[in-house]
Amino acid sequence: MRASYLLRRLLYSGLAFGVSITITFVILHLIPGDFITQYLKAFYVIAPPEVVTAYNHAYGLDRPLIDQYFSYLLGVFQGDWGYSLSYDRPVLDVIDEKLIWTLVILLPATVLSSIAGIAIGAYSGWRRGSKADIALLNGMIFLRAIPSYWLALMILLIFAFYLKLFPLGGYVSLSALNTGIDPLNVLTHAALPILTLFLFSVTGTYYLMRNSILMTAGEDYITTARAKGLNNQQILRRHALRNALLPMMTMVALQCAGMIGGSIFIETIFSWPGLGLLTYESLKVRDLPLLQGILLIDTLIIIVANICVDLIYPYIDPRVEVGDDLQP
């Protein structure tokens, strides 16, 4: 990989991040309502105009929007992402605290869904047209059509409310106030959110793996392997599966990044204290600095995931030469 390509890639990524900052800032400031009005409702039935004016001046919300934008843009690149109005703390501190809890359910769900999706998709694609393939394909289509919030509600209702196998929500039991946080207790609370994220994301991995296997099965080297007398299992493991796995690198990386932003409903329903629930709470009280920080973190994770895939891909597939100029 050439250094010039890596430099260009980083430059384009920085440009994309800057555009994301602008779009996020504009869209969030178009949302009706403001935090100051919501916050003062806790003290006043109708807040006096002079009080509202004083709070807006204290937080710099009375400045022209273009001034607020350039101040925010400069602060982001200096590591100052603003101050959360509802938490009364720096935005990055709040996000760091919540991101850890999102990763607690996100990483296991991503690993499990990737393994299951790859295995089931490879089996289904290799046995295209069989009863097993048709059953799996229809099952995945049905599962994909279910909204994530409805799926989370049904899982919560069945396994927590009716069967009482798992807690109804939260990340620890009340006993943690006396005994401290027990990892096993956290795992018990995390089981249902992980299951929901797993079911929500396994379908995408399945579809891509199945299609990748279908494309690989028609290659000449598969025909050559059959002519050599290798059985179906040997051909699948040694040839088809290895080459079909290459597109999965991008899928898994982007899926992991995308699930952070897509866990709003799931974390809210299960009262899981991650970025998803934080997004919902910030939106409810119009905490714009915190909302901007959350959306920028999502964007940054997606950009970093893309760069990592670009860096790793040539080592997985030596045929890929990234950054080389085309020769006549």
Automatic annotation (TrEMBL):
What GO terms fall under cellular component here?
plasma membrane
Transmembrane stretches, start-end:
12-31, 99-126, 147-166, 186-208, 244-270, 290-313
Q: Where in the cell is it found?
A: Cell membrane
**Organism domain of life:** Archaea
- Give the record's membrane topology: Multi-pass membrane protein
Question: What InterPro entries does the record point to?
Answer: BPD_transp_1_N, MetI-like, MetI-like_sf
> Does the record's keyword annotation contain Ribonucleoprotein?
no
Query: Does the keyword Cell membrane feature in the UniProt annotation?
Result: yes
Q: Which keywords describe this protein according to UniProt? A: Cell membrane, Membrane, Transmembrane, Transmembrane helix, Transport
Q: What's an example GO BP annotation here? A: transmembrane transport
Q: Which residues form the ABC transmembrane type-1 domain?
A: 99-313
**Pfam families xrefs:** BPD_transp_1 (PF00528), BPD_transp_1_N (PF19300)
State the family named in the UniProt similarity comment for this chain. Answer: Belongs to the binding-protein-dependent transport system permease family.
The protein in question is named Binding-protein-dependent transport systems inner membrane component
